[in-house]
Design goal:
186 residues, 7-stranded mixed beta sheet, 9 strands
C-alpha cells in the first residue's frame, strides 16, 4: 500500500470511486478537476498492487489556522482494513505540514462507520447541518479536531508502534512525508 499526491492523470480512477461511493451526490468531473488543480487543496491517492483503491482531499492554505477534509472515498473491497484510517492520517499530516491547528469535516449522519473512524482519531461533533446532503436530505454531522493535540498524541505513541515500512515524499519542495506503518494497516 502506498499514498501519493494525486495528479490529473488520476481523474478517471478517482471519479469511478467517487460515483461508486456517492451515487446520489457525486461531484462532477469538472469539480474534481478544479479541486485537483487548486493551490489550496491537497489530494492524495491510495494505491495497492498498482491499483487506485482510495482518494481523499484536504483544503488548507499555508499558514492558515484551520483546514477542511473535503472528501475520503475507498473502493468497497478496501474498506474495513485500516486503509481509510491511513488515508485520513495522511491528510491530517498534510494539514499539519501547512501549519493548520485544527481540522473540520462534515460526515453524513447515516454513516456511523465513518463517524466512528473520525471519533477514534480525536474528532468531536460540534454541530449538525439539517438536510445538508442532497438529494437525500441527510443531515451533516460537523466535526472538529485539535490537530496539535492529535500530532502530539501520535508522536507520543510512535515509539510503541512497529517500524515504518514505506515512506513517500508527497511534496518534496515542502518536505512533507507520509509514513505507512505495518500496524496502521491491519
Amino acid at each position: 500500500m502506498s499514498v501519493r499526491a494525486a495528479t490529473g492523470a488520476d481523474l478517471g480512477a478517482i471519479m469511478a470511486l467517487e460515483r461508486a461511493s456517492f451515487p446520489t451526490d457525486a461531484w462532477s468531473d469538472a469539480m474534481m478537476r478544479e479541486e485537483l488543480a487548486s493551490p489550496h487543496g491537497r489530494y492524495l491517492v491510495l494505491e495497492e498492487a498498482g491499483r487506485l483503491i482510495g482518494y481523499g482531499g484536504v483544503r488548507a492554505s499555508r499558514g492558515a489556522s484551520d483546514a477542511d477534509i473535503q472528501t475520503i472515498a475507498l473502493a468497497e473491497s478496501a474498506r474495513g482494513r485500516g486503509r481509510g484510517r491511513a488515508l485520513l492520517r495522511a491528510l491530517l499530516a498534510e494539514a499539519a505540514g501547512l501549519g493548520a491547528r485544527e481540522v473540520f469535516l462534515e460526515v453524513r449522519a447515516d454513516n456511523p462507520v465513518a463517524q466512528q473512524l473520525y471519533t477514534s482519531e480525536g474528532f468531536a461533533e460540534i454541530g449538525r447541518r439539517p438536510r445538508y446532503y442532497q438529494p437525500d436530505g441527510v443531515d451533516a454531522v460537523v466535526m472538529r479536531l485539535d490537530l496539535r493535540g492529535w500530532a502530539a498524541q501520535w508522536a507520543a505513541q510512535r515509539p510503541a508502534r512497529e517500524p515504518a515500512t514505506t515512506t513517500r515524499a508527497l511534496h518534496p519542495a515542502q518536505g512533507a512525508q507520509i509514513t505507512t506503518e505495518a500496524g496502521a494497516c491491519t
